[in-house]
Automatic annotation (TrEMBL):
Protein's cellular compartments: Cell membrane
Catalysed reaction, written as an equation: 4 Fe(II)-[cytochrome c] + O2 + 8 H(+)(in) = 4 Fe(III)-[cytochrome c] + 2 H2O + 4 H(+)(out)
GO molecular function: cytochrome-c oxidase activity
The protein, known as: Cytochrome c oxidase polypeptide 4
Role, per record: Part of cytochrome c oxidase, its function is unknown.
Coiled-coil region list: none
Length: 133
């Protein structure tokens, strides 16, 4: 994971000068692109830091080692629930919230309320047992 983390952390050193050059080229009059590039710097830093922190905690994976074998990564990776409807509820509420930004704030608050319901339902989906929808 260290290679992935350094790739993302390298994005900080690449996108910071790009943002400054972009701001200079537009005479600091176009703020949307400049701020978007600065947010890209922050995103690269967050993902790179997370991957670096996880690599230190987990240790080298089989695909990181030279002597790693394919069978070392065999087996279950995690638990996924393919029958869950909560991601669909959360996506729909996000769509309603974004529509509310364009149409009116009262629609945004409806979408935000549905998002809270969808997020709580998704987080606590397995607290009542399997298939308890």
């Amino acid at each position: 994971m260290k290679v992935e983390s350094w790739i993302f952390l390298g994005g900080v050193f690449f996108f910071t000068p790009v943002a400054i050059v972009y701001g200079y080229m537009t005479n600091w009059s176009e703020w949307v692109g400049f701020l978007a590039l600065l947010m890209l710097v922050g995103l690269s830093a967050m993902v790179g830091w997370y991957l670096l922190f996880t690599a230190k905690r987990v240790g080298p994976r089989p695909e990181d080692r030279v002597d790693g074998e394919i069978h070392e990564n065999a087996g279950d990776i995690g638990m996924f629930s393919p029958w869950s409807w909560w991601p669909l509820v959360l996506a729909g509420s996000a769509a309603i919230s974004f529509l509310g930004i364009a149409v009116g704030w009262w629609v945004f608050f409806i979408g935000a309320g549905l998002a809270v319901v969808g997020l709580v339902g998704w987080v606590y989906e397995y607290s009542r047992g399997d298939h308890a929808h």
